[in-house]
Design goal:
two-stranded antiparallel ribbon; mainly alpha
């Protein structure tokens, strides 16, 4: 196949696109000096252009990493101070499961507390590592969304990459700089990771039992990370049910009942007790006593 147009008695050539209508349009317009380059640029589904889009999608994450490394400081801020109580008890050997499970504000952030204690022990409580964990979790969310775009977008790689670029611009936006520069904000990224991972699993080819058990575990982690993590149980169930709509009705009803039971048990544990984390440690009392003295 070829398409040509004569200009000043000179014949020029270009590589035809996959769209016949576009080929005719290129032949109809006043000819360019180098129509071959123009036509290649119009082939948006080419491999070089897809590679360009993929690199463009990675740029927001790289920019966020640079901002964290440049502006992140190892100084506790606001709710970061509450984590000091857990790390202090861990260093004294008095940390218990109840301390990890107790409410922080309205949250039962059991799993993030485990992460904070582990990172505090490994890094001498350098909060910049918690910021990097937030970035890693955001990257997991980005990857999950990319895979979901492939599952739902059919065979169009170009469409999936365009959605990947737009999603990463929103996920790694510098407008949420407080989330990137506060270590405790990890608690907000964990539920998003759990929800998107559950959706990926629901769209996979795993058997029904594996899907439901894995998603139930992730929903539990989401619930005991942040208060909005409870929504994971609600959001994921319809996708799980739809992914196996061809199954037997008896098995379908059994899995739904098991899911609802798991949701009820998680909510019951979440609502058990109203204790909030105690901040009366010597580590925190000294600065507060100094504030009172200055106030007087």
């Amino acid at each position: 196949r070829r398409c040509c147009r004569y200009s000043d008695k000179k014949e020029s050539w270009f590589i035809p696109t996959a769209n016949p209508a576009l080929d005719q349009t290129l032949c109809a317009v006043p000819f360019l000096d180098d129509a071959r380059i123009f036509a290649n640029l119009m082939r948006l589904d080419s491999r070089p252009f897809r590679l360009f889009l993929f690199c463009l999608a990675l740029l927001p994450a790289v920019l966020t990493l640079w901002l964290i490394l440049k502006y992140g400081v190892d100084v506790p801020f606001w709710d970061d101070w509450e984590t000091a109580v857990l790390i202090e008890k861990f260093s004294q050997g008095t940390l218990t499961t109840a301390d990890l499970f107790v409410k922080h504000n309205e949250y039962r952030q059991f799993f993030p507390n485990l992460l904070f204690v582990l990172l505090g022990w490994m890094t001498r409580w350098d909060l910049r590592y918690q910021m990097l964990v937030s970035l890693v979790l955001a990257c997991v969310v980005s990857f999950n969304i990319y895979r979901l775009a492939q599952f739902t977008g059919g065979s169009s790689k170009l469409r999936s990459l365009v959605q990947f670029v737009v999603a990463n611009i929103l996920i790694f936006t510098p407008m949420q700089y407080e989330n990137w520069l506060m270590g405790i904000q990890v608690v907000y990224y964990v539920p998003i990771v759990c929800v998107t991972t559950c959706l990926r699993i629901a769209c996979s080819r795993l058997n029904v039992g594996t899907k439901f058990i894995t998603c139930a575990c992730l929903a539990t982690v989401s619930t005991f990370s942040s208060i909005n993590g409870i929504l994971c149980w609600v959001v994921v169930l319809p996708v799980l049910v739809r992914s196996r709509s061809q199954g037997r009705s008896l098995e379908k009803n059994w899995t739904i009942l098991a899911w609802v039971a798991g949701f009820a048990v998680s909510v019951a544990f979440y609502l058990t007790g109203d204790e909030q984390i105690a901040v009366g440690s010597a580590f925190l009392d000294q600065p507060r006593s100094e504030e009172r003295r200055v106030g007087k």
